[in-house]
Structures are given as structure tokens and as C-alpha cells.
Amino acid sequence: MSNKDNLFSEPLDQIAPFRFDESVVSVFPDMIKRSVPGYPTIIAMTGVLAARYAQPNSNLYDLGCSLGASILSMRQQPLPDSCKIIGIDNSTAMIERCRSVLDTDSNTTPVELRCDDITAVDYDNASVIVLNFTLQFVRPELRDALIQKLVASLRPGGILIISEKVEFTEPHLDQLNMDLHHEFKRRNGYSDLEVAQKRSAIENVLIRDSIETHRKRLLDAGCGNANVWFQCFNFASIVALKA
Questions:
Q1: What is the pLDDT of residue 2?
Q2: Of 3, 25, 80, 101, whose CB neighbour count within 10 A is largest?
């Protein structure tokens, strides 16, 4: 069972850069549910999209798999024969907890978990690739090459799902959506202190791109289309199809 996220509830003398360590892992389900508008919908529809586009004898990748929410969502679907789900995360604490979560799941689609850097992995025979709130933590100069590698590994007719916290090119819209997101967090029980301290911790760790940047990157990499299927404030999810 997840603990309540109170990591930033007391004043901190120094705010360290945000890390996916054991303290975050222990509260992660509560943290992400209270911090990301539409998160349950995005996870549920990740499974629905995977069931539609997964191909027999192919790999389904969940990159930045954290505690396995997207893996479970895909695994609960009637996937084609001989599919395999591969979850990758660079946090040892996340992978260890994910493994224990999956041990309680009775679905039978094979799952392989790896603790690794997603920019350094070779991908192949993919029909579905999921990056739910992952690319935003990859160094910006590495993102184009990563997406090109991922799209190259996709079978024709395969999809790439990218969910992100996004920026708006118009400053007033960007500020409005940040304000609305902070209000969302307050309505979910976070104090002004928690909102401010978490923002300071994550400021130079989570680097946002615009929706336009995401779409261009996907199209330039060889996707036939890339469309926003979900958006709430400054959180969006894009599905891209390889023709």
C-alpha cells in the first residue's frame, strides 16, 4: 500500500534536485495521482491503445516504467499471441518495487524488467512503445536521437505513446496553465509550501517541450501522424502511428 506524499510538507533548509529514490518510490502512487491531472485516464487508455495496436510475436515497451502502472494496464488486455512486455527504468528502487507489484498480478503476458538508461538500450521488433511522463526527464539534447531510435524499432502499424508535462509557446498561456495545475494540486491536499518546494526540486530536472516540438520530433523520425488524444491543463498525451 502506498504512503501519503508528505515529502515537502515541512520547510527545507536546502532543496535537493528531485530524484526517484526510495523516499519517492514509497509515496509514488499517491504523489502522481494527486499531481498529474488525468493520470488514471491516461494509464487506462494506454492499455486500450495497446490492445488495438499490439501485433502478434512483438515487443511492447514501457520506458520509465516506474511501479508498472502502464505494464499492468497493457497486461490486463486481450493481447495477441506471443507478445512480450519489456519495462525499463533507471531507478533501482523503482524496478525492485515494480517487480514486487507484478508478482501479485495474475495475468500471464510475459514481462521482462530491466534497470537501464533508456537512451543506451537497443530496441527491436516493437509494436507498442510507451513513454508516460518519461521523456521530460531525458536530457533535451538526447531526445531527438532517442525518438528516432524508437520509431526505427517500430513495426509498420505500430504506435508510440508519449505523455508529458508540456509548455506553451505563448507566455500568458503557459503561466495560466501552470497556475491551474498548482490549483489542481491544492485541491488534492497539497499546501502552498509543498507546491513551492516541489517546484523548486523539479525545476531543472523536468524540462518541458511544447506539443508542437513533440509532434515535429515524431514526424521527423518517420511517424505518419502524431495526434494529441488527451490534454488537461499543461499535461498531454500523444499517440503516433508508424505507417
A1: 63
A2: 25
Distance between CA 124 and CA 153 in Å, rounded? 5
CA 108, 109, 110, 114: dihedral to nearest 10 degrees? -120
Q: What is the reported pLDDT for 172?
A: 98
- How crowded is residue 235: how many other Cβ atoms within 10 Å of its Cβ? 21
Q: In which residue ranges of the chain is pLDDT below 50?
A: none
Q: What is the pLDDT of residues 197-221, one digit of tens each?
A: 999 999 999 999 999 999 999 999 9
Q: Provide the pLDDT for residue 23.
A: 96
Instruction: Report how far residue 29's alpha carbon sits from residue 146's, in angstroms, rounded to the nearest whole number.
Output: 27
Q: What is the identity of the amino acid at 188?
A: N
Query: Do the Cβ atoms of 218 and 29 come closer than 8 Å?
Result: no
Structural contact between residues 55 and 80, judged by C-beta atoms closer than 8 angstroms = yes
Of residues 43, 101, 47, 99, the one with CA closest to residue 75: 47
pTM for this entry? 0.96
Q: How many CB atoms lie within 10 A of CB 124?
A: 10
